[in-house]
């Protein structure tokens, strides 16, 4: 039995929960972070000195950082499915996983905090609009990459789809005024038809 520490509306927790669900793994998820608190206790910091969610436990192993957790689950339990065996394929999956963290997360966090966590009267609409434009330009890159492919690596879902795919739900829901991106929209449609995505990513955005 795996344990994942983190509230379900955290995108980084969703990355791990969606990965585990795609692999058919049973998870005991514990509510911590946000309104639940609990990230600054000595017990939590002993597991995760970064004081953030998610934290994943699998037997004696404790790890944190959502992409590291997702990679671990895919490598251990998803050979031949989520985990690309070929080093070149794995590098391409890593590329899009790291891109979500290093390029996409910043502007999408501005959009999310601005539109979801900030009262309307206090919103900096210029900053939110600029971040939405940047997010859109970034997803346009993925749209181009997905031409002729069902998923990031081709025919089937892999770890390379997971972080950008989890963020795609927020992008589609929060950035409504965007140009047509047919490959991205078709890929997003494939994600939304998956029960694991519906159960762990398509939750109220709060
Ligand atoms: N790079 C980390 C980021 C972790 C992170 O910042 N998590 C946020 C939630 S998405 C958090 O812990 N926020 C504090 C809280 O929920 O109380 C990862 O990908 O796991």
Automatic annotation (TrEMBL):
Gene3D superfamilies the UniProt entry points to: 1.20.1050.10, Glutaredoxin
Domain spans labelled GST C-terminal: 86-206
Start and end residues of each GST N-terminal domain: 1-81
Entry keywords, A to Z: Transferase
CDD domains found in the cross-reference section: GST_N_2
The UniProt record lists the keyword Transferase: yes
InterPro entries: Glutathione-S-Trfase_C-like, Glutathione-S-Trfase_C_sf, Glutathione_S-Trfase, Glutathione_S-Trfase_N, GST_C, Thioredoxin-like_sf
One MF annotation (Gene Ontology) recorded for this entry: transferase activity
Pfam (any one): GST_N
Record carries keyword Nucleotide-binding: no
Similarity-based family: Belongs to the GST superfamily.
PANTHER family recorded: DISULFIDE-BOND OXIDOREDUCTASE YFCG, GLUTATHIONE S-TRANSFERASE-RELATED
This protein's name: Glutathione S-transferase family protein
Origin species: Hwanghaeella grinnelliae
């Amino acid at each position: 039995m795996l344990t994942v520490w983190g509230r379900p509306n955290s995108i980084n927790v969703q990355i791990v929960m969606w990965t585990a669900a795609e692999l058919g793994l049973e998870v005991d998820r514990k509510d911590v972070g946000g309104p639940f608190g609990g990230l600054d206790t000595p017990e939590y910091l002993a597991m995760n000195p970064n004081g953030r969610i998610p934290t994943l436990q699998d037997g004696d192993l404790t790890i944190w950082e959502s992409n590291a957790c997702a990679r671990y689950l895919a490598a251990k339990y998803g050979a031949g499915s989520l985990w690309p065996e070929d080093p070149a394929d794995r590098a391409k999956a890593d590329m899009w996983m790291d891109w979500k963290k290093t390029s996409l997360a910043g502007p999408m966090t501005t959009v999310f905090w601005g539109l979801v966590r900030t009262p309307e009267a206090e919103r900096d609409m210029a900053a939110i609009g600029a971040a939405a434009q940047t997010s859109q330009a970034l997803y346009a890159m993925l749209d181009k990459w997905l031409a002729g492919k069902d998923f990031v690596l081709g025919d089937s879902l892999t770890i390379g789809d997971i972080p950008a795919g989890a963020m795609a739900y927020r992008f589609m829901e929060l950035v409504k005024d965007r140009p047509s991106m047919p490959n991205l929209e078709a890929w997003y449609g494939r994600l939304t038809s998956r029960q694991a995505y519906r159960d762990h990513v398509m939750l109220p955005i709060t």
